[in-house]
Amino acid sequence: MAPRNHHREEDDRPAQGEIDLRVLGRGMWRRKRWILLPTLLVAIAAVLFVQLTAPYYRSSALVLIENREGGAPRAGGEAAAPLPDEQAVASQVQLIQSRDLVRTVVKNLNLSSDPEFAESHESLFSKLLRLTGLAGPRKDLPFNERVVDKVAGGLSVYPVVGTRVVGVEFAARDADLAAKVVNGFIDAYLAIQRDAKRESNRQASQYLGEEIANLRDRVSVAEGRVEAFRAEAGLLVGTNNTTVAAQQLGDTTIQLSTARTQQAEAQAKAEMIRSVMRQGRPAEALEIANSELVRALSQQRSQLAAQIASEGRTLLPQHPRMRELSAQMAGLDQQIRIEAANFARAFENDARTAGARVEALTKQLELLKKSASAANGQDVELRALEREARSQRDLLEQMLTRYREATARDNPEALLADARVISRGAAATEPYFPKKGPTVLLATLGAFVLSLFAAAVAEIFGGGSIRRYDDGDVAPPVAVAVAQRHEPVQPAPAAPQQPDRAPVGREREIDRSVAPAAAFATGLATAAVLKPSETSTETAPADPEPVAEPSVAETTSESVVVAPDRPAPTELAETAVEADREPSGEEPVVLASDPSSPVSEEETASDDSSEPVKATEEEAVDASAPPMSAAATGIIAAAAAEAATSSGAPDNIEHSVDMECVDATLVSALARQLASMPSGPGALRIVMTGAAEGLETRGVASELASTISSFGRRVIAVDVGGGLGQGALTGLAELLTGEATFAQAIHRDPGSRVHLVPRGDQSFASLDASAQGRLGVVLEALALTYDFVILTAPSGAGRADLFASHCAAAVLISNAGASDFVTVDAHERLRGAGVEDVVVLLVNDGGGSPNDKSLAA
């Protein structure tokens, strides 16, 4: 094993033209004084700066912006002023920063006599800043303006985010002066607010006084016009603020209604009396029964009836006495009927009288209607004049109210500024500039980092750290490939040690560190993937007649291959890393076994077994079978179910006729579940195809592969006809025909960590049988390096069956639903091809992808 480790150490060296970090470190150590000396000088300069620079103290105050009203009354209908918004607060910030306010503060505090602001000496630093246009008042400005510029330069005003508070800060060399100035700004700002309110109130009072005088005259004129027009039109106002004509019309209407009621009542009573008279019961009418005469006659009749009954016990009806009493009874009845007839005639007379009154009132009402209609036009004009007079009076009353309010606010104590001080400035105890410790530390660190960078740049551009191989350098060892012939290979005798640099067919150096070649050579039964002309500097003896190559299964079962031990997982992982940093245009790196490139004796002796490994017919492994155990069956279906459950969308998974159906929106969740599963002894091979003809699968394949790779898992996508969008790149077709190596066929997706094997310049179906038979060998080699191998097959019924036999799982994409006949048929075909673990992804867009993302080399 020692020689192999030696080669591994040589592989770790930087390639020609790359930066050697060890050499770079030694070069920077040689330049250490150019790193430490500037750092020390900058540190000393920083210490001198913080010690010699005059300290500045900062004082701050806070002002709350709000609408404040004094004790003056507010109009009844006037709403309170709204609270200031962000624009209003920003306006107040600009007001505090205005030069007029700065001049006021300078004048109030007599800052022009303060040495800090009145000094005429200009430092060198200020001159440099002024020359560069970055700071400093010009000397040609008047003295007062220079003082104003200095004061404005030390002022800082800012709004506190999310509040209506404005912060005011001022910096000066004297802490007491800084507090004095910041409080002076606050007082001047509040005074300006009060003066502005006072001036506004004075102007309002003056304007309202003039307008009130004019409005009084206009109100008098408008009300005079109303009264004159009313008198001229005869629209005199009666009770209830109505005109006389309207009142007459109403009274006549009421009288007419009463007369009609009386007429109807009299007619009804007369008719009722006539009715009871015809029935022979006149005394039953209420009006007749209430008559005194009828009541007396009824009483006499009752007495006479009693006497007739008494006499009738002893006398016969024809007795003179009985006949006399009967005659008296008939006379009483006649008198009652006469009295009832009198009542009926009286009620009929009342009805006729009421009817005459109704006719008279009706005629009078018609006349009143005509006069009222004539007065309506004049009433409209009268109402217009009244509205004008009323509006003038309302306006006068409003202005009188406002005038009284403005007069009440003439007192200066009644006017409050629209701001309130919530924190006044106080003298600071510690300077804010310079911060001695942080300044020295940052300056020292910055100088140290810049010195390191300068030393590194000088060393790199000086050429001391660039790696260059001479002719005597040791090139990386070559990879060992397998035999291309089908005859059993006997154990090879010990060969001399492999030279460090071996010539090849194209006279180039071959890097052994490329992954897939080593992985490809370690299969138990494999076939060569390079043409004989590219495998060695010496031409292999050709057979007299061309012999057709057997299938992969035949090659596996009939070949006996001598190969080194299976590489450890760490070695296989390193091969994938080499594919990451390898440009796609590099030369091929896989060598076929040849007598000119034997395995070194040391390397053969260092293997675990003292004898070469022989793969017999019983021990051979079928290259077409996926390296998945029986326990792995159903892993992708379980991951799909777990993805639907963990995504909080259990309705997105559907079980139909032994089919696992999942919404395509859960592709990322499915990928996360697959990435979280522990690594097995080999890669999980997944074939992706569409149920319907022309259904794209690259979107789902891209998202599945990129999501799995984002979790640190090694993923490679192989295009066997599904299309990954890489264009005309070297890929699977060249790899199967032997025109390219793994290093040339494997590309890196720039948008993710996924490795890609494009389709190549030919479709898989157009390749010959021998090239197609090597697919299982290629997939077996990839399975030794990667955790997941994803095949994108063409869409359509039966087009993925050939590739399904090499995979342990399948993803079937359908845009028609789980119950669709095409989907069910494609699902059954995959199951029949030997894939027990099939998941159906349902898409809605018909494009076969949940998004527009695709892998690109």
In short:
Residues 486-508, 529-627 are annotated as: Disordered. With 857 residues, the protein is an alpha/beta fold.
Please count the helical segments: 27
Roughly how much helix do the residues carry, as a percent range? 40-55%
- Strand element count: 13
Number of structural domains = 5
Q: What's the pLDDT, averaged over the residues? A: 72
The CATH H-level homologous superfamily of the largest domain: P-loop containing nucleotide triphosphate hydrolases
Percent strand:
5-15%
Task: Please mark out the parts with pLDDT under 50 across 5 or more consecutive residues, or reply none.
Answer: 1-16, 467-633, 649-653, 846-854
Supply the CATH class of the largest domain. Answer: Alpha Beta
CATH topology of the largest domain: Rossmann fold
What is the CATH architecture assignment of the largest domain?
Answer: 3-Layer(aba) Sandwich
Which strand order does the major sheet show? 5-6-13-12-7-11-8-10-9
Question: What is the structural class?
Answer: alpha/beta
Description:
The strands form two sheets. The chain has a nine-stranded mixed beta sheet, with helices on both faces. The protein has 27 helices and 13 strands. The protein is an alpha/beta fold. A hairpin with a 4-residue loop joins β5 and β6 (660-663). Residues 600-610 have a biased composition (Acidic residues). It comes from Hansschlegelia quercus.
